[in-house]
Amino acid sequence: MERRKALKHMGWAMGITVATPTALSLLQSCQQNADTAWIPVFFTEAQGGALIQLVDLIIPKTDTPSASEVQVHSFIDSYMKEVPEKPEQDLMTMAFTAFLNKALKDSGKTEISDLAAEDLEPVLAQSLAQRSEEEEAAAMESLGAYMQAVQEGQPAILDEAVARSMFAGNLRSTVIWAYKTSEFVGEQVLTYLPVPGEYIGCGDLDQLTGGKAWSI
Fold this sequence. Notes:
The protein is an all-alpha fold.
C-alpha cells in the first residue's frame, strides 16, 4: 500500500473535523455527566490528569470557562475509546506516551502523576512550533512509513519528535472543536439563535451579533 493511501486510510488518531452524530452524542453525554467524578475509560488515571492540564493549557479559564470546565478532556477520552479502530488507538497511546516521556525527562520527574502544567507547557509549545517545509515533508514521510507498516502488519517505528508533534497538533484541533461545539459555549459564549428564527439575508455582523461568530 502506498504511504499516501495509508495515511488517508488510517486517518489521524484523534483529529476531528466533521461534527458526526457519534462525536456530537459523546460530547453531549460528557457534558450531562459533568457533575460526576470523572474516571478515564481509555487513558490511565495518570494520563487523564495530564490530559486535563493540557486541554486547559490550550484553552485556559479567562472570562469564559476553561476547556476542562466544559468536559473537553472527558469527550476526548470517550471518543478514543468508542470511535477509532485499534491501530489508531495504538498510535494515540504511543504518541501520548512519547509526549509525556519528554515532559518527564525535561522536568527530571519519574511519575506522570507528578507532572504539573509548567512541566507540560514547554513540551506542548515545542511540539506545536512551526516547522519548515522540509521538516514538514520529512515528518509526513515518517508518519506515512509508520502507517504503511502498520497496515501491512510489519514492525512500525515512528520518530518520537514526529509522534509528539502529531499528538499536540491533533489535540489542539480537537480541543478547539469540542470547546466550540459544547452546549455552554454554543449558547452562552457564541451567538446563538434557535431554529427556526428570524432570517436576515444581508446584515452587518457587528450589528447582528456584536462581532461574535455564530454558534453551530
